[in-house]
Amino acid sequence: MWSQSIVAAAILLAGVSGLPASEATDNFHLGPNTVVLDGTRLLETKLQLLFEPWNKQLKTALGDLTTQADSWLSQGPWSVTTSQKTPPGGDLHDYASQAPYYWPSNTTNGCPYINRDGVLNPETLLYTDHANRGTMFQASYILSLAWYYTGKEAYGKHAGDILRTWFLANDTRMNPNLNHAQIIPCQNTGRSIGIIDFSQEYTSILDAAAILATGAPGWTQSDVNGFHEWNVEFLDWLVNSPFGIEELAEGNNHGTFASMQIAGIALFVGNETLAKQQVLDAEPRLTDYVTANGSQPLELVRTRSWHYSTFDLVAYTRLAAIGQHVGVDLWNFKGPQGQSINAAVDFIVPAATNSTPWPYPELEFLAYGATDVVHAAADAGNKIAKAAVSKLQPPPGGDLWLLRPAAEQLDASF
């Protein structure tokens, strides 16, 4: 209903905002040029908030969003250059992190480091880039959305400052590579597997930048151009570096997220051909790594099998969302034995709704970890998911799906 009258609604919005009607229709009738989120849907929701003040679900979601945004106003910006531990090579502009599950052995110097899957080594916190990256991702995304829906300048300005500090300002910017991510002491100075540090959330930053580009105060054309060029360089590294090639070939969540990140960045910088190919490549990936009953064997063997099963589905559902931008219907793809995103969602629904206990290893079962992926499947027409939505556990801070309908990782990961 809203999409049929969206230009007229934009003109009404112009009357409220003080913009000329022609500028309103030019700037608003398609919504933000997002790569995962549906920009038109964001605009429709914005108009609903304006013209349907009786909508309690939207008002509740907006209250939860602005509460989170308010908490971020006094935090940041962050930079890789403030790390407590200097990266290998000595360049503070290089992002660096340490493998979270590797612990020193009982030797004089701690070498070799030994994997204890799912158990965080607190020594890794000395590389503050990892923690700062996570807060930077969350803060800029929430603040950008809050600015878009409320028009409050403080949200938009702070979101822009956070992105500018991390990616663009000469003194504080990050180099566009992940050469030193998830280091194992005594063994290496970085690993391909470390790309997951960015790929799990970075596409939300692309959407945040797209939202700010619709007119956020302080986010200039120079910022838009600079962020575009940063992503051109980062995409080149992801596609052509040995680490990037190795990570993309992984069969578990690492490969799915690597593909999703490449697709999102490619679409963001205008390489629709590459974006489309990554979405199409998800079809053989689903065939190979999701079973007929929807289980994901490579995730079920982990000590946090629930977390990683839902985590991998975040990547698949976001790939499907990117597919909608480039004309590929990944939601309705089925492998020769019925392997599909929908089958994988159906597999987790009983545990997501607490109808059936999760029968696989899990150090910390959090039902709300699946909330977003079930929402995504429901929106895509999955009947089992639709029936489950009312039974889902909302994540801490509230369910924001109505305001940012693209799956996010909701249960914390190291």
Automatic annotation (TrEMBL):
Signal in keyword set: yes
Domain of life: Eukaryota
Keyword terms of this UniProt record: Lyase, Signal
Alginate lyase domain span: 79-358
GO cellular component: periplasmic space
InterPro entries in alphabetical order: Alginate_lyase_dom, Chondroitin_lyas
Entry annotated with the keyword Lyase: yes
GO MF assignments: lyase activity
Signal sequence region: 1-18
Protein name in UniProt: Alginate lyase domain-containing protein
Naturally occurring in which organism (per UniProt): Oidiodendron maius (strain Zn)
Classification lineage: Eukaryota, Fungi, Dikarya, Ascomycota, Pezizomycotina
